[in-house]
Task: inverse folding
């Protein structure tokens, strides 16, 4: 939530500054960047909604909770980035290709770009910090963690901030070439490139949210840690099947086939399994646990001999 709030605040400030600079300079690249920042600011509203609605607990109508709503609202934000940011930037750039006139007030544009880079950098620093912490827990590089994490809002803010910093560099180059050559088509090309960049980011975010909505299994590191946790229980002898699927950010639906220690009578098995399920669900990351019994001929699952991972 802190990451999203910081990103929203920075994007609003940057959007206002870029809009003023775009009007004063007549720069197509700056106008594209202004549209980009306004789109990002609007997207943060959807991401805040994603955090709020996705955090609700489960009820009778939603036994797995509302975690998947995070991906719904994050996907809406990604569509907004595409339609408002990418489409507007590309169309504005295409329309500006016929502009061969020199611009004005370049100094204002450069100052705004520099200030924008600082503000965007503040937001990006927060997302980098969060990505490093998450990657450290799962022994992943921060970039890989951002790509694989179930935290859709972190991924969206990280991608938007990274795209914003790259877009600022593109806008600066486009405006500089416009100033040097007096040909406004360089600015137009910069606007088109910014739009293409936003389109790529939007498609990446849409694809990842779709994967979590249709059913994304837990990564091997987390699955192996849960398998080890099950096998350390005194009442479980072996595990022959384990399925873990995301039902929200860092929230799982767990199904496992286990062989219990001893030879309990039939009327004692069901209550014992229900008790184990309840104990497993005490972990905040397990929304629902369903256990069934293994058959004698089923092979036991093996796990890597690694240290514990904090989920």
Result:
């Amino acid at each position: 939530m802190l990451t999203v709030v910081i990103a929203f605040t920075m994007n609003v400030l940057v959007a206002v500054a870029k809009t003023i600079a775009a009007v004063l300079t007549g720069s197509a690249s700056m106008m594209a960047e202004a549209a980009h920042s306004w789109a990002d600011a609007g997207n943060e509203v959807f991401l805040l909604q994603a955090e709020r609605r996705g955090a609700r607990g489960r009820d009778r109508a939603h036994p797995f909770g509302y975690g998947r709503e995070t991906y719904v609202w994050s996907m809406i934000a990604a569509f907004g980035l595409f339609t408002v940011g990418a489409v507007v930037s590309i169309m504005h750039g295409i329309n500006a290709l016929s502009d061969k006139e020199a611009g004005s007030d370049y100094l204002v544009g450069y100052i705004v770009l520099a200030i924008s880079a600082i503000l965007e950098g503040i937001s990006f620093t927060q997302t980098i910090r969060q990505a490093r912490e998450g990657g450290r827990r799962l022994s992943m590089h921060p970039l890989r963690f951002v790509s694989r994490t179930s935290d859709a809002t972190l991924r969206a803010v990280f991608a938007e901030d990274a795209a914003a910093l790259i877009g600022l560099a593109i806008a600066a180059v486009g405006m500089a070439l416009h100033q040097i050559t007096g040909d406004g088509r360089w600015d137009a090309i910069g606007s088109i490139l910014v739009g293409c960049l936003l389109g790529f980011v939007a498609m990446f975010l849409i694809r990842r949210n779709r994967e979590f909505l249709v059913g994304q299994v837990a990564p091997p590191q987390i699955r192996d840690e849960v398998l080890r946790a099950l096998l350390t229980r005194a009442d479980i002898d072996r595990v022959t099947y384990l399925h873990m699927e995301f039902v929200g950010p860092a929230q799982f639906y767990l199904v496992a086939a286990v062989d219990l220690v001893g030879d309990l009578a039939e009327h004692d098995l069901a209550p014992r399994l229900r008790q184990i399920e309840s104990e497993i669900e005490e972990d905040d990351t397990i929304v629902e646990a369903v256990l069934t019994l293994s058959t004698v001929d089923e092979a036991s699952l093996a796990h890597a001999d690694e240290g514990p991972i904090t989920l």
